[in-house]
Design goal:
Bound molecules: flavin-adenine dinucleotide
Helix content: 25-40%
Distance between the termini: 12 Å
Number of strands: 19
Strand content: 15-25%
Structural class: alpha+beta
Shape: globular
């Protein structure tokens, strides 16, 4: 798989504090626990290092791929060619609204770097008595992945409270983009489209500001607890990528899959969850299944649902790497 390894001088990133490893298995870094190696792999913990690393990769024409929580990506068994940047930039801050800019609106800002876990951020906001992110207390993944995908649950979604995002754009400019310019829609954004167009050299979310409000702390906590309890009751706890397929208009992918008799169907080490039919689970974890098993089971589900219901199911998860 390695095409670029011998040509790269890895001393430059080392000089600004980023250690690049080679042929690192990515399965442990995804929630499905499958997938092959990254040709190059670099964890980053500061936004300054993230910016320098992306600029360096662009300068040497090395395709890069941002990995957050790995909770929405099915990585091919053959792995990812180029540089996988494992985002661990995790600073969080609550900022008062500056009264010279917002004289009659004192709702605070919640600043988060893009590698912050969304669920942890939501729990922190709940603990601070802030309302707006309760829906996110059980959604896996990072803030960066959530902004790209417009993650949502329980009727809430990222776009409801996002104020702006700091992005390193394709022209190497750092831009503060107002939320409405990100064109968030159902599990998508302008960033997601730009990532697809500029594969390997797309925009990078560095940090975001949510705008939240203070509310009744006990009521906020009760709502968040109810969402958590609902998720524990209704979704499997084994490794998965969450919902495999998007809900078709006016219906639910899980209902269609269950009605097609597919609950419990197995391919290799993975199976259609017996608890929630839109989840494919990998009960054995790392080493017990392959990305190929997941892809084969997805194809079987799509064919069966098409034959039984005449509905074409579209994947919600993203297949990345060398398929
Ligand atoms: C058990 C389970 C339950 C789930 N429930 C929900 C749910 O209720 N609602 C929901 O919306 N989703 C849900 N998901 C899916 C997933 O949690 C979301 O899509 C999440 O927002 C993905 O974030 P991530 O950090 O894991 O992204 P990754 O999977 O790491 O990456 C996803 C995409 O975003 C890109 N990306 C990541 N970070 C950046 C960045 N900083 N800059 C640019 N691009 C970036 C990646 O390159 C990739 O293309 C669930 C998943 C699981 C496993």
């Amino acid at each position: 798989m390695s095409t670029t390894a011998t040509l790269l001088d890895l001393r430059t990133p080392a000089a600004f504090g980023v250690e690049i490893q080679q042929q690192v298995s990515l399965a442990p870094y995804t929630t499905m626990k499958v997938g092959g190696p990254a040709e190059y792999f670099a964890p980053v913990t500061t936004v300054a290092a993230l910016i320098r690393l992306v600029r360096w990769a662009r300068s040497v024409e090395l395709p890069y791929y941002l990995l957050g929580g790995g909770s929405n990506v099915l990585i091919a068994d053959a792995g990812i060619r180029g540089l996988v940047i494992y985002n661990r930039c995790r600073q969080v801050r609550v900022d008062a609204a500056p009264c010279c800019v917002f004289p009659v609106d004192d709702r605070p800002f919640l600043f988060a770097e893009s590698g912050v876990a969304l669920a942890g951020l939501a729990r922190q906001s709940v603990a601070e008595g802030l309302t707006g992110l309760e829906w996110a207390v059980s959604v896996p993944g990072t803030v960066g992945g959530a902004v790209v995908n417009n993650a949502g649950a329980h009727g809430g979604e990222v776009k409801d409270n996002l104020y702006d995002a700091m992005v390193l754009d394709e022209q190497d400019e750092i831009r503060e983009i107002p939320a409405d310019e990100l064109e968030h829609a159902y599990r998508s954004s302008s960033l997601k489209r730009r990532l697809a167009v500029k594969a390997g050299f797309g925009p990078v979310v560095l940090s975001v500001n949510f705008r939240l409000a203070y509310g009744d702390a006990a009521a906020i906590r009760a709502q968040a607890d109810a969402y958590l309890a609902h998720r524990r009751r209704t979704q499997p706890s084994e490794p998965s990528l969450g919902s495999t397929f998007k809900n078709p208009a006016g219906d639910f992918a899980g209902r269609l899959i269950e009605a097609a008799g597919l609950k419990g169907t197995q391919v290799g080490g993975v199976q259609v969850s017996t608890q929630h039919a839109n989840f494919i689970v990998n009960p054995g974890g790392v080493g017990a299944a392959s990305a190929g098993d997941v892809a084969a089971l997805m194809a079987q589900i799509q064919q069966t649902v098409q034959a039984r219901h005449g509905v074409s199911l579209e994947p919600e998860i993203q297949m990345v790497g060398e398929w």
